[in-house]
Amino acid sequence: MVYPLLSDEYFMNEALKEAQKALDKEEVPVGAVIVNQNRIIARAHNQTQQLNDVTAHAEMIAITSATNFLGAKYLTDCTLFVTMEPCVMCAAALKWAQLDRLVFAASDPKEGFSRLKEPLLHKKTVLIPGILEAQASLLLKQFFLHRRGSKN
Q1: Residue 18 among the catalytic residues
Q2: What is the rounded CA–CA span in Å between residue 133 and residue 117?
Q3: Choosing from 9, 18, 27, 59, which is the catalytic residue?
Q4: pLDDT one-digit tens code per residue, 13-31
Q5: Which helix (DSSP H) or strand (DSSP E) does residue 43 occupy?
Q6: How many CA atoms are closer than 13 Å to the CA of 14, on its beta-carbon side?
Q7: 48: closest CA among 4, 90, 100?
Q8: What's this model's pTM, rounded to 2 decimal places?
Q9: H or E, element range at 45
Q10: Which tens digits make up the pLDDT trace of 25-51?
Q11: CA distances (Å), 96 to each of 21, 55, 80, 118, 119, in order?
């Protein structure tokens, strides 16, 4: 599928490419890109197994990369595109980074931040859920089916 250049779908497709990298490494297939002024300034995918680090979520790695790129601790003019709804840890980090927009694909009713009654994102962060949800959900289903199959 071809998406218009610089659309939310285009950038989410780039995040899906990162999620595929995670899947290829037998990591939970979550990918992220951070966009500033219509250009990708950070790319990341889950690396918790590879780095033996429970905090090595795609969002956390992308935040660090983007702030290093910008030379600033805030992401006020940035959009994070991530293939799965951020967890509480990642949402809290995004709040502190003062992210402008958060666009995610698949919801995570068990571990996602939106399951909490208190809003975790910065009050100015615009939230856009469900972009390319089917594609992201398929990668997650493939991962967990393979994982269950390898445990039998």
Answers
A1: no
A2: 23
A3: 59
A4: 999 999 999 999 999 999 9
A5: strand 39-45
A6: 21
A7: 90
A8: 0.92
A9: strand 39-45
A10: 999 999 999 999 999 999 999 999 999
A11: 27, 16, 14, 15, 13
